[in-house]
Design goal:
By secondary structure, this protein is mainly alpha-helical. The chain has nine helices and two strands. α2 packs across α6, α3 packs across α4 and α3 crosses α5.
Length: 178
């Protein structure tokens, strides 16, 4: 099997190799991130949903399961399952909306805020370590990933609308002109 795999790799195109390498690096990043967060008893999906909830609560927006799914890119069924887990852990509260009783509004508890703070610190340390070998190429790597993301119109609009300030929006516009 090993020889067959080597033959396969030697016969694929450079374009295919890029995709394979991206997939391998992403899987490595996910696996190592899982290890980094295990002490906090939190998964990456849980962290993303807690962070998006914190952001929405901070902006005084109504945070719903649908809005969290939309903002994080986590499918609605997984979002629902993860939110139930977060509620059992005591990190979020869910209450029915006064406007629409089918909708539940989500907010962080004090323990939820603490775990987001701890996980954010851990994620920063992890990313610094994981991407550290790129050294001075780290900025170029990030820029290249961003260029690829901006080929998707939906993602481009989402970035413009939700994620970055005017300075970052200007860099998006510069990227669009290239």
């Amino acid at each position: 099997m090993e020889t067959c795999y080597k033959d396969f790799l030697s016969n694929i195109t450079n374009s295919d190799k890029i995709g394979l390498l991206l997939w391998k690096v992403y899987n490595l990043w996910q696996r190592e991130l899982k290890k980094a967060l295990v002490e906090l008893d939190i998964t990456h999906s849980q962290f993303l949903l807690l962070g998006a909830t914190l952001w929405g609560n901070h902006c005084q927006a109504e945070v719903t399961q649908k809005s969290l799914s939309d903002k994080t890119g986590i499918d609605p069924m997984t979002t629902s399952t993860v939110l139930r887990t977060l509620q059992k852990k005591g990190w979020i509260k869910r209450k029915f909306s006064k406007k629409d009783t089918r909708t539940r509004l989500i907010s962080l508890t004090e323990n939820g805020k603490k775990i987001v703070e701890s996980a954010t610190k851990e994620l920063k340390k992890f990313n610094d370590s994981f991407f550290g070998p790129l050294k001075e190429q780290r900025g170029q790597f990030q820029e290249n990933l961003f260029i690829l993301l901006m080929t998707d119109e939906h993602i481009k609009e989402e970035f413009k609308k939700y994620y970055y300030d005017d300075k970052f929006k200007e860099s998006i516009l510069i990227t669009e002109k290239s």
